[in-house]
Specification:
Layout lengths: L9 E7 L4 E6 L3 E4 L7 H4 L10 H8 L10
Parallel strand pairs: 1-3
Antiparallel strand pairs: 1-2
């Protein structure tokens, strides 16, 4: 193998949006994530809507049951 062409593979800190942090190995020093194993619905068993740019709220407003539907 060629010398001095590989990146430095060191310990990295992973920070989740839920506040959880853990260490792993990576070529980066710090990694930021939106969902980790502590807050992901598959691991927690709880339904959690991940709202990106208000899409869930817009859907709820558009298709809410309190609107009068006039489909014949």
């Amino acid at each position: 193998m060629k010398k001095d062409i590989h990146p430095v593979y060191a310990t990295a800190t992973v920070k989740c949006a839920c506040g959880n942090t853990f260490t792993t190995r990576s070529t980066r020093d710090e990694i930021h994530t939106d969902i980790c194993s502590n807050c992901h619905p598959f691991f927690t068993g709880k339904q959690k809507l991940v709202d990106t740019a208000g899409r869930v709220e817009r859907f709820r407003q558009r298709y809410s049951k309190d609107k009068a539907t006039t489909s014949n």
